[in-house]
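note to self — DONT lose this again. spent like an hour looking for the file last time. sequence + predicted structure for the chain T wanted, 236 res
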Amino acid sequence: MLVACLVQLRAEINTLAPNRDTGADGWIGDAAHRQRSSDHNPDETGKTPFKDADTIDEVHALDIDSTGPWPPGKDLEWIVETIRGRHLRGFDNRLQNIIYRAQIASKTWGWTWKPYDGADRHIGHAHFSAVYTSAQEADVRPWGVLANARRLLTMESLEGYGLPVLALGDDDADDDGYNLVKRAQRLLAWIAGTDLTPDGVYGPATAAAVKSLGLNNGTTIDRQVWAKLYGLSRTG
């Protein structure tokens, strides 16, 4: 069987795009996979790169077709980058690697992309490999795929920014054009996979999202919060 965390991921993608083409979807390995070590093989066969603690035959890999159709503003690249971004920032730890379009991002080296030249370069589908630890296998928290973000969010450098401290009650009404509250809200919604509305007002919902980062009680966005939002620190 497929590990529960990847069953959850597939379910979220199916909810996002219920009419999508699933022709390149897959999880259980074929004859070629069975001849080599692969996360697509059941983990009790001895043909996987890792071993988990139980004696249940489980598969730790899921492929998702890139074809769609996808809802406006979202596609498989958006899904891949949403999930990779959450891992890069330390908000998720259920995957070992992602392979897509001849590139691989991995837990091993901090979730940056590197060229991938394996036998299957995963051009028409994305490959997600789960880690082999029991808690992560069974973790069915949301993956962020059903969040409201409409575009990819670029990792930005904070060098040269004044890094203002935003406080509960601040808003963008008198801002100088940077819309810092909205920028923080968009990142918070993307990372947490919530329906937080980027309205430019630092109210209770935004405070709760900030609190979920585990850095303070939600009443301020300070340098530690900005750094975590922009992926510069996974521990704050």
